[in-house]
Amino acid sequence: MDAESFSSSISSSSKTQSRRPLQEHAIPRHQLPRQNSDRYIADRFIPVRSAMDFDMAHYFLTESKKEKENAAAASPSKEAYRKHLAETLMMNRTRILAFKSKPPAPVDGIFQESCSDNVSTHQLKSSKPRRYIPQSAERTLDAPEIVDDYYLNLLDWSSSNVLAIALGSTVYLWDASDGSTSELVTIDEENGPVTSVSWAPDGRHIAVGLNSSLVQLWDSTANRQLRTLKGGHQSRVGSLAWNNHILTTGGMDGLIINNDVRIRSHIVETYRGHQQEVCGLKWSSSGQQLASGGNDNLLYIWDRSIASSNSPTQSLHRFEDHMAAVKALAWCPFQSNLLASGGGAGDRCIKFWNTHTGACLNSVDTGSQVCSLLWSKSERELLSSHGFTQNQLTLWKYPSMVKVAELTGHTSRVLFMAQSPDGCTVASAAGDETLRFWNVFGTPEVAKPVAKSTNTGPFSNINLIR
């Protein structure tokens, strides 16, 4: 067994006993954050210049030096003046550096208003307040029986604000708008467990990849299975990616298959290049380029125009720079040809690629296994999740790659991440059987709720094939 697919030595039965899926996680008392008390209020002191005694400070600093230099030459009158000054200072002595608990309240008046009027509009716009990033999870839910396997993809968040997570052989749906939980499907032992889940762009239909090489398509609103895609892979399907009505599947057999879910003969293209399991798949925002990562340490860029005009085995780029499995992939939202990729435990690097030229723009050693990557939708920032030793989420500023924050709390590697539709909240699932929600990318803007669409769109012609 390789480094990416090791399992916890603690048996699943001991960890999942009497725990219900997607319920609030009970935190042990000794792990609760320490409450602030009154005696910690004044832990920061700010010096106030108006309360400082500079005369006394100057006297004490220069007294001993002057005594040595001028002891012999000092006149009786100067000596008397010196003693008198010292007595006066000692009688009115205050601390050299004085502190106050808080600054005085501002005085409202004409002068203050006139000062405010002189501040230019440009200055007001440029003084952007620094974003507060909470260091602890906003919410923690139990996720018993989640498969601790680096190569799988068991978490996804839909455009309709519903989170899907596969726990063992069951797919659960958690509605983020009201916190309700429902069970979509439980797979039988012959085909299970679930190895991947992925929401379609419409936020209603979801693909479920299975250990048996099958892929099921479900209507989450009607809680109904629409069809089963089969005949493409010979082993488990661990990665899925949607491109409008095209569902791309990646298998342990190394194959990448494009399936048109609208037609009966659903296999329309097959990409051959990976020699081992395909564990990462991501389509670019334009739908023209597909990035694939595998356990063979390879990263491919496939272009639909090249594949359709020539051979589907012809890739646009083949990168061999990573030294471990490439699972974490993320296309940049503000630069269409920029791709970020992350390597496993033997690599630990995040690399950035220009997919037009094939150039590696940068490589950053994170110090630990890179499990998943997410770009911010509003800031030039990248979030990565990691394994040993800290099992943390790290927020990076792009392109400087300066660490903005490190979020800790998981006690096992953070295998999966998913981003909310508004782009502000990130859900992370780890081998510690918890699902945590982090307010990483800011506060969402208040918007009118969008009614869930009942129109099937490109899925109206899905054949009900079992």
Note down, in words, how this protein is organized.
This protein has helices at 12-16, 54-70, 76-91, 110-118, 121-126, 304-309, and strands at residues 46-47, 99-100, 139-142, 155-157, 162-167, 170-175, 181-186, 194-199, 205-210, 215-219, 224-229, 237-243, 246-251, 255-260, 267-272, 278-283, 289-294, 299-303, 317-319, 326-331, 338-343, 349-354, 359-365, 370-375, 381-386, 393-397, 402-407, 414-419, 425-430, 434-439. The radius of gyration is 31 Å and the shape is elongated. The chain is 13% helix and 35% strand. By secondary structure, it is mainly beta. It starts with 11 loop residues before the first helix and ends in a 27-residue tail after the last strand. The protein has two domains: 52-103, no CATH class; 138-459, 7 Propeller (Methylamine Dehydrogenase, Chain H).
Sequence-ordered SSE layout with sheet pairings:
Layout: H1 12-16, E1 46-47, H2 54-70, H3 76-91, E2 99-100, H4 110-118, H5 121-126, E3 139-142, E4 155-157, E5 162-167, E6 170-175, E7 181-186, E8 194-199, E9 205-210, E10 215-219, E11 224-229, E12 237-243, E13 246-251, E14 255-260, E15 267-272, E16 278-283, E17 289-294, E18 299-303, H6 304-309, E19 317-319, E20 326-331, E21 338-343, E22 349-354, E23 359-365, E24 370-375, E25 381-386, E26 393-397, E27 402-407, E28 414-419, E29 425-430, E30 434-439
Antiparallel strand pairs: 1-2, 3-30, 4-5, 5-6, 6-7, 8-9, 9-10, 10-11, 12-13, 13-14, 14-15, 16-17, 17-18, 18-19, 20-21, 21-22, 22-23, 24-25, 25-26, 26-27, 28-29, 29-30
